[in-house]
Structures are given as C-alpha cells and as structure tokens.
Write a structure and sequence with these properties.
Elements: H1 2-11, H2 23-31, H3 33-53, H4 58-71, H5 76-89, H6 94-102, H7 108-129, H8 133-154, H9 167-171, H10 177-194, H11 198-221, H12 226-245
Helix pairs in contact: 1-2, 3-4, 3-8, 4-7, 5-6, 5-7, 5-12, 7-12, 8-10, 8-11, 8-12, 10-11, 11-12
Pathway: Cofactor biosynthesis; adenosylcobalamin biosynthesis; adenosylcobalamin from cob(II)yrinate a,c-diamide: step 7/7
Cofactor: Mg(2+)
Membrane topology: Multi-pass membrane protein
Length: 247
C-alpha cells in the first residue's frame, strides 16, 4: 500500500499521504504509475463523456478534459515538460541547461511545448469522445495508463540521475528492466481490451517516445531529473492519444 499511496500522491491530487520513501517503495510506485494513470483517465473520461451526454459538443468536452487533467495533476507534469523543453532547447552545456530547467519562469520552448501537447490532447480526445460511452471510457483510460508508463521507463536501470539532489536521485534506476518489460506487457494487454490493435500500438508508442526522450536527456543532461519524468509522461500520453484517435 505504501507504493500505491506514493504513486497516487506523485501522479494525481488524490488526498493520500505517502509515508515511505525507501527504494523498494519507490520502485513499486513507479511500477504502479500506469494504474494511477488509468484511474485518472477513467475519471477524466467519465466527466467529459457526461458532458457530451448532457449535450455539449465533443470539442468542448475535450477542452474540459484537458483542463481537468491539469487540475488533477497540479500541472506538475506540464511544468516538467516546459522546463525540459527550455533546457534541451537551449543547446547549452549540461550544467547550464540544468540551471535553466530549475528556473521558475518559462521560456519560448516551454510555452511551445505545452501549447502543442495540450492542442494535440484536445484534438485526440475530441475524436475519442465522439465514439460510444464504453469506447470513450476504455480508450481514454488506456491512453492515460500508457502515458504514465513514461515514468516507469524513465526510472529504468542504466539511466542515472543528472543531479546529486532532487526527485531524480530518489527514483533513478529503481526499476529493473525485467520488471519494466513486464509492466509494458501488462498495460499493453489491458489496452488491447479497449482496442485490439490500437491499444497495444498506443502503449508501444508511449514507451518509444519516453525511451527516446530519456536517452536524449542522458546525452544532453547526463541523466534523469524530475522535470524529465514529467516531460516523458506528457509526451507519452500525447503519443498514446494520437495512436488511439487515428482512424
């Protein structure tokens, strides 16, 4: 339960208290990240589809879904995406790039990254919400579960922390690759229940995007930071939504 509480506290605004922060608990929390994402996706899908049922246009419901997703995650992952985009987009040396990422302001790369991801999410959600109630709930739940695999991928063995302090140090290299592979297979199998072909493809797209981002972060920054995890989650979710919304 400690791992589940930590996963919910890191990835949602659920009023749970994480009382353990040792490495085994962190490992379990990162493996349970897709479960937290599934609960978030189900909540968002239910609220948005209820709006459609009440007569709202799918585009309006999708916009509400995107806004709720920011509210229910405290905008933490979107902030990580903005900071990561500014740091990587600066083409500065690693130390300077990490300093840029720690600043509280958002630069042009960060603004562009957030705007692009929110626009993609809204457009994809519009398409998914236009389907039947069961299909909309299933596909959106699968998308947000796949997106949180970005955190699991980020914490794989072999990807060190970029800084000697911060969230990256606490979670870096906590997930063995064998457990990562098992988590991906489980999420892909469950996503197949939402869509036999697009579900697993969305999971693979999410994993590929998060793996590519974190590999690039290792080359440019020296390793993992909390901001990179947030960026991996946001980009993985967008990738999953794109695949699921593609006819």
């Amino acid at each position: 339960m400690g791992g589940l509480r930590l996963a919910l506290s890191l990835f949602t605004v659920a009023p749970v208290r994480a009382d353990r922060l040792d490495r085994p608990t962190v490992r379990l929390a990162m493996l349970l990240a897709p479960l937290a994402g599934a609960l978030l996706g189900l909540t968002l899908a239910a609220a948005a589809r209820a709006l459609v049922f009440a007569g709202a246009a799918p585009l309006l419901a999708a916009a509400v879904l995107v806004a709720l997703s920011l509210l229910l995650t405290r905008g933490l992952h979107a902030d990580g995406l903005a900071d990561t985009a500014d740091g990587l987009g600066s083409y500065a040396p690693p130390e300077r790039a990490l300093e840029i990422m720690k600043k509280s302001d958002i630069g042009p790369f960060g603004v562009a990254a957030i705007a692009s991801v929110l626009l993609i999410n809204a457009a994809a959600a519009t398409a998914l919400l236009s389907a039947s109630w069961p299909s909309a709930l299933a596909t959106l739940t699968a998308a947000y579960a796949a997106g949180r695999l970005g955190a699991t991928v980020s914490c794989r063995r072999g990807l060190p922390a970029a800084r000697p302090e911060g969230l990256g140090v606490m979670v870096a290299e906590t997930v063995p690759r064998s457990l990562l592979a098992a988590a991906v297979l489980v999420v892909a199998g469950l996503a197949a229940l939402a869509d036999p072909w697009r579900g697993p493809a969305a999971v693979l797209a999410a994993v590929a995007v998060s793996w590519a981002l974190t590999a690039h972060a290792r080359r440019r920054l020296g390793g993992l930071t909390g901001d990179v995890i947030g960026a991996a989650i946001e980009l993985s979710t967008a990738a999953a939504l794109i695949v699921l919304a593609t006819a």
